Amino acid sequence: MATVTSKDGTKIGFDKVGSGPAIILVNGAMSYRAMDPTLAQVAELLVKDFTVYNYDRRGRGESGDTQPFTKEREIEDIQALVADAGGQAMLFGISSGGAVALEAAAALPGGAKVAVYEVPFIVDDSREPLRDYEEHTTTLVADGKLDELVEYFITTVVGMPAEFIGGMKQDQGMWGGMKAIAPTIPYDAAFVGEFTEGKPLPSDHWAKVTMPVLVADGGASPDWMGHAADALAKVLPNASRRTLEGQTHMVDASILAPLLSDFFK
Q1: Residues near 36 by beta carbon (within 8 Å), at least 6 away in sequence
Q2: CATH fold of 2-123+201-264
Q3: Residues 238, 210: contact at Cβ < 8 Å?
Q4: Using CB atoms within 10 A of its CB, is residue 48 exposed (0-12), middle (13-18) or buried (19+)?
Q5: What is the pLDDT of residues 62-109, one digit of tens each?
Q6: DSSP assignment, residue 60?
Q7: CATH 3.40.50.1820 domain extents, the chain
Q8: Which burial class, exposed, middle or buried, applies to 223 when counting CB atoms under 10 A from its CB (0-12, 13-18, 19+)?
Q9: Is the pTM of this model over 0.85?
Q10: How far from the centroid of its chain's Cα atoms is residue 117's Cα?
């Protein structure tokens, strides 16, 4: 494992594979390299043409977590990776990692193309909106209610039936792993929370994201995901739109990687 040091001194762990133009992969909520192999699989499928960075976001896996958290600090983590890549990199963000990638693209020099997959914005009434997402999750962390936080994320945010919780808790390794990174859920909420209340996306929030952006979703995902992708593509200055037929939020790396390869080339 390699590391870079973010501006606030936080060590950020990452894997780097391949050669060619750099792509930085940004994972979503409750996910990191050792917990979800999807992005590692994507990286391996891109190694012939690209140098691919797969990193643990702060507070997860082998990355540190200097407090207090701010969105700017998380963007600085990506900036440190861009610097390691020689000052220029493309970004791919999955789920709420897509929101992080877009904010980073707006803030940092050295950004080229950006691709995002199923950024979980809620832009209409096609699903129940999330109210006070960042505030509620931050309060649960402060109160030490990590079991309640994981349950909230699984049922209210992700939308899984509550009856699945009992079975998940029986797998102590899996449940313990989710509790360990649950304090980072508010970090994702900071990037997406204001866009999960069932309202149209603002027309100017991503005005500085002028580079080409690919907005993708899965054809087998719930309708609200497609609505969010459509809405995001409409407000970005330079966006293209793709749907991967038969795919869901748990996208198949072998289907996703060729799409990214064609776009980033």
Answers
A1: 27
A2: Rossmann fold (3.40.50)
A3: yes
A4: exposed
A5: 999 999 999 999 999 999 999 999 999 999 999 999 999 999 999 987
A6: S
A7: 2-123+201-264
A8: exposed
A9: yes
A10: 9
